[in-house]
Write a structure and sequence with these properties.
This protein is an all-alpha fold and about 180 residues long. The protein contains six helices and no strands. The termini are far apart. The chain has one domain (about 1-10, about 55-185): Ferritin, core subunit, four-helix bundle (Ferritin), CATH 1.20.1260.10. The longest helix is centred in the last third of the chain and has 29 residues, at about 125-155. Helices cover about 70% and strands about 0% of the residues.
Length: about 180
């Protein structure tokens, strides 16, 4: 549990698309998102989980739409389309549960997420597929760690089953990303 917790905390930190900004330099200074560390009761933080999953889904949907149009290989375009559909469904399924927690739900990507999307938009055609797949490997792995940790020890008994239910889908996404990466080598 402790190692899963550390992995999840690192994943949230690495991929926190912090939506909270300050001052005039907001785009350059993302504030830290609450890590997915235990709360006072020793369980996974619902706030960090809601933030992490919501921001990752927003990124996945935006990145997938870009891949559908900019992908050089049919496999990348198909992967983008699948991820848009799956993460849109996941957002719809989780949103009503998240609202019930009275946790603030992010409504836009933070600086890191925006930079990742900007990198995809700016990528040269010859570089796009490799960049997209690299981002997918990282973001899907982080979401898997976050979902798994919350399913094992999340503080909300209403959200734990939803987190556990999403794990197989994200594992399938990671497998598909790996399959496409191998096929492109």
């Amino acid at each position: 549990m402790k190692s899963t917790l550390l992995i999840a905390a690192a994943a949230v930190a690495a991929l926190s698309f912090a939506a909270v900004h300050d001052g005039a330099n907001a785009a350059d200074k993302p504030k830290a998102v609450t890590s997915n560390k235990p709360n006072a009761n020793g369980t996974e933080s619902t706030e960090a989980f809601v933030t992490g999953v919501t921001l990752n889904d927003m990124y996945q949907i935006q990145a997938g739409k870009i891949a559908e149009t900019k992908g050089q290989s049919q496999a990348v375009r198909d992967l983008g389309k699948m991820l848009v559909a799956d993460h849109t469904d996941m957002t719809v399924q989780m949103k009503h549960i998240f609202i019930a927690t009275n946790t603030k739900i992010p409504t836009e990507l933070g600086a890191r997420g925006k930079r990742m999307i900007a990198d995809l938009n700016a990528a040269k055609p010859a570089d796009f597929d490799k960049l997209y797949l690299s981002q997918q490997q990282t973001t899907q792995a982080a979401e898997l760690a976050l979902l798994s940790a919350y399913a094992e020890g999340g503080e909300s008994s209403d959200i734990r089953p939803a987190a556990a239910g999403a794990v197989p889908k994200i594992k399938a996404h990671l497998a598909k990303v790996h399959e496409v990466q191998v096929a492109m080598k």
